């Protein structure tokens, strides 16, 4: 078995990727059949299974050249909140 991380964007409010999440858990724990492909392009239904986190595989799915951007361009900085005392 490969060690690695899985990334799934899901939303119970909009019913996004809940079925994928459920079936992926069943596949990993009980070896049930799993027929979903990784989705790296649609940010509203993002799904990266374990084993797809290697750089050559990510480059294959990177249609928008997102990997070329540096971290600060992809992840916006957090805004500091002022504590009210």
Task: Jot down its keywords.
85 residues, mainly alpha, two-stranded antiparallel sheet, 2 strands, 28% helix, 5% strand
Order of helices and strands: EHEHH
Strand arrangement, largest sheet?
1-2
Cα gyration radius (Å): 16 Å
Q: How would a crystallographer describe the biggest sheet?
A: 2 strands, antiparallel
Strand content: under 5%
Binned, the helix content reads 25-40%
Termini Cα gap: 52 Å
Oligomer class: single chain
| Number of DSSP-assigned strands | 2
Principal-axis shape equals extended
**What structural category arises from helix and sheet content?**
mainly alpha
Compact overview of the structure:
Helix content is 28%, strand content 5%.
Question: What does this entry look like structurally?
Answer:
With 85 residues, the protein is mostly helical. The chain has one domain (7-74). It has 3 helices and 2 strands. The chain has helices at 18-30, 55-61, 71-74; strands at 7-8, 47-48. It has a two-stranded antiparallel ribbon with strand order 1-2. The radius of gyration is 16 Å and the shape is extended.
Note the topology:
Elements: E1 7-8, H1 18-30, E2 47-48, H2 55-61, H3 71-74
Antiparallel strand pairs: 1-2
């Amino acid at each position: 078995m490969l060690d690695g991380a899985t990334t799934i964007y899901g939303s119970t409010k909009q019913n996004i990727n809940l079925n994928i999440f459920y079936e992926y858990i069943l596949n990993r724990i009980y070896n049930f059949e799993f027929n979903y492909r990784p989705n790296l392009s649609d940010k509203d239904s993002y799904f990266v299974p374990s084993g797809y986190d290697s750089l050559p595989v990510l480059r294959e799915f990177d249609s928008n050249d997102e990997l070329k951007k540096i971290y600060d361009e992809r992840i916006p900085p957090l805004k500091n909140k002022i504590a009210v005392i």
